[in-house]
Design brief:
alpha/beta; Glycerol-3-phosphate (1)-acyltransferase; 7 strands; 37% helix; 16% strand
């Protein structure tokens, strides 16, 4: 069985039922999500579930082109974990910078976007405290500047840090929200781009319509 088929079975038989029965993700403005690449889905990061939820929100026909960016130091540290995350989940492993240029560190992500993939990217760089947005790293701005035509789709996630917080492995049932914000592109100036992105990774205005909620 090929890896694409394994990914399809994993999400259809395990991830989707788990999210439906144990988590209850309420999605707003799903229609804003990209279904073809190249595209960047950018979200706040509080839980290992964030990646699975974002992938599950997309049509199953897109899953073979979805590539979450993840820490090579964490996910490649043993053979079984490395096999599962690279072959079934399809992560793009990125090693810690260690003083290397952004172009070198992010080349695997850049290559995936050039190949037409949908890349999931967490600009905080690591999981933070539930419902608190950490400082965004500038790698996302470098990618946007290098590929200005790539659509960037921000998604604000709420509640997943309570379902499976950092350091825990036993999920706790809790209703969660995924709010797909309006897409943006490179503005031509790093500070304004980062400020706009940060604003779209925080709770949306209460008057913004929620006209495409998940069923």
């Amino acid at each position: 069985m090929g890896y694409v088929a394994l990914r399809l079975l994993f999400f259809l038989l395990i991830v989707k039922p788990f999210l439906l029965l144990a988590v209850g993700v309420n999605v707003r403005r799903r229609d804003r999500l990209p279904t073809t690449g190249p595209a960047l889905i950018v979200a706040n990061h509080n839980s290992h579930l964030d990646t699975l939820v974002l992938m599950a929100l997309l049509p199953w026909r897109s899953w073979h082109r979805v590539r979450p960016v993840a820490s090579a130091d964490y996910f490649l540290r043993d053979r079984k974990r490395a096999w599962f995350t690279t072959r079934v989940i399809g992560i793009i492993p990125v090693a810690a910078g260690g003083g290397r240029p952004q172009a070198e560190v992010l080349e695997p992500v850049h290559a995936a976007l050039r190949a037409g993939d949908i890349v999931i990217f967490f600009p905080e760089g690591t999981r933070g405290e539930p419902e608190r947005l950490g400082k965004l790293k500038t790698g996302i701005a470098w990618l946007a500047e290098q590929l200005p035509d790539v659509v960037i789709c921000p998604v604000y996630l709420h509640g997943l840090g309570k379902v499976l917080p950092k350091g825990d492995w036993l999920p706790v049932p809790f209703f969660c929200d995924a709010w797909v914000r309006e897409s943006l592109r490179w503005t031509g100036e790093r500070a304004s781009f980062m400020a706009e992105l940060a604003a779209r990774l925080t709770p949306p205005p209460t008057d913004e319509p929620a006209d495409a909620e998940d069923r």
